[in-house]
Structures are given as C-alpha cells and as structure tokens.
From TrEMBL:
Required for chromosome condensation and partitioning. The chain holds residues 1 to 202 of 1148 of the full protein. This is Chromosome partition protein Smc. Belongs to the SMC family. It comes from the Bacteria. ATP binds at P32, N33, G34, C35, G36, K37, S38, N39. Residues 177-202 form a coiled coil. It is found in: Cytoplasm. Homodimer. It comes from Phaeovulum vinaykumarii.
Amino acid sequence: MRFARLRLNGFKSFVDPTDLVIHDGLTGVVGPNGCGKSNLLEALRWVMGENRPTAMRGAGMEDVIFAGSGGRGARAFAEVALSIDNSERLAPSGFNEADQLEVVRRITRDAGSAYRVNGREVRARDVQMLFADASTGAHSPALVRQGQISELINAKPRARRRILEEAAGISGLYQRRHEAELRLSATEQNLTRVEDVVENLA
Ligand code: ATP
C-alpha cells in the first residue's frame, strides 16, 4: 500500500480544495513558517482516524474546520481524502477488492465525522483497523511531529514499547482483544441472568 494522493478541502488553513500528488520516493514539503506544513501531516493523521483534538492542536475536533481568515468566512465542513495505491493488493481483507483505495473523512459542524472507503460508508474503527493492520495509521511512529523526538528520548519504557508494537504491526490486535473482552463480559452477564431466570422457574 502506498499513499498516492492527498486532497484537502476546508481543512485548517487549506480553505480551497488542494490536491497533493505523492510520487514514488521522497517527497519534501517546504515553505515559510505558518504556511501549513504541519497541517498537512495532521490531515494525514486525521483521515486515518485520529480522534484526539489535542493531536490536531485543537480544543475540539471541529477546530480542524477552516475558521475564517483574510476576509474569508468560516467553512461549515472539512474533508480530507487519501488515495492509496493498492495495486499489489496488500490492503487488509475487507478492503482489498480494488487497485486504488480512497479513504475520505468529512466533519460537519454539529454533525461530527463520517468516513467512506471507495464511496462506501464505514465506521471510524474500520478505517483505524485498515491502517493499523497495514502497520501505519494516526499513531504511526512514521509520522513525526515537531518536538516528538525529544519527547521520545524522555519517554517511559511503556511508551517506547508502543512504538515497537506499531513497527511490528500488532497494534490492531489490542483493539480486537479489547472488543473481544467486552463481548465476553457481556455474554457472561447474560449467562448469569439466564441462570437466575432458570433458578426462579425451578
Ligand atoms: P512552522 O514552520 O512554523 O511549523 P507550518 O508551515 O508547519 O509552520 P502550520 O502550523 O501547519 O504551519 O500552519 C499554521 C497555520 O494554519 C496558521 O496560520 C494558523 O492560523 C492556520 N490554521 C490552523 N487551524 C486553522 C483553522 N481551523 N482555520 C484557519 N486557519 C487555521
């Protein structure tokens, strides 16, 4: 899976539709302070399912919507689309039916986020798992924001372990284990209830 294109519309400082083609090899983004370089990295994280506003340098998730500046009014929504080259068919099952995947996240004021993959509406969790299984995603150690290296040097071993787990591609398993544990506990509660009912009938 290779990122091929990033499209932004109304996301942070990218008020106008912006199309960024990502070619093979190294891509550099250069520009003066405040031109939006970090916003691009945040757009990548966001479309992959980031759900912490602080990771977007905001207080609430709607802060990613263009807030108005330079005489232009605030926008009602923000959208980021990430096109992925899947010609080698390495996408996780459930998403591996096409050579090209387009993951779209859109946030509308007062209506929250919605996700689509190749036009099909999916849950945030589906998108997060898609990228986690592909050893990338919003928390991927491959995305390094300003100040993160010094944070890592000072990090506790548990935080460093998370990076190794991401690199090993097993972080998606934790979410699945958590969900399985929740289902197990719900089933155990149901069983207890059934036993109570049976006892009352006896
Ligand atoms: P530096 O080189 O200083 O790190 P940068 O190129 O990484 O800068 P960013 O931090 O990506 O720049 O962009 C900051 C700009 O984005 C600021 O001008 C800020 O006003 C603008 N911005 C952030 N959020 C929004 C928003 N919701 N609406 C409008 N503009 C926004």
